[in-house]
Amino acid sequence: MKATDLLKKDYDRVKQLFKEINSASGDRKEEILETITEELRIHSDLEEKIFYPAVKSIDADEIIRFQEAHHDVEDVLVDLEDLTAEDEEFDQRVKELEQDVTQHISEEEGDLFPKVEEQMKDQLTQIGAELSKLKKELSVGKKAA
Prior knowledge:
With 145 residues, the chain is mainly α. It has helices spanning 3-23, 26-55, 60-81, 90-119, 124-144.
């Protein structure tokens, strides 16, 4: 699978989870948030460790912006760890997280991915294989923890 296709698939999964959390209640919201958190952290690791270094030559400044966006998302995730679904700011923080993630997805899919697909099309399958391998390792590691 091409690297950009794998990353888009991750994004589709997270967007679906946000739909689910917005219609859920109580403990179910907290369970979905745990899944969102895991998905986002694994995705971030994939991009930070493999994808961004591989495509940095295309637009280093843009990659730095995307890395900063990852840090912003992580800050919200850390804040959410201390909240339960009953806390009045829980929904607000989830909404903030969703907006941050949605903006990041839109910018990557709209700006970076087309450039990468045009300029690195011959390498995308190999990068995708590396991403897939690391994703499996990280997913197994999360389940074992």
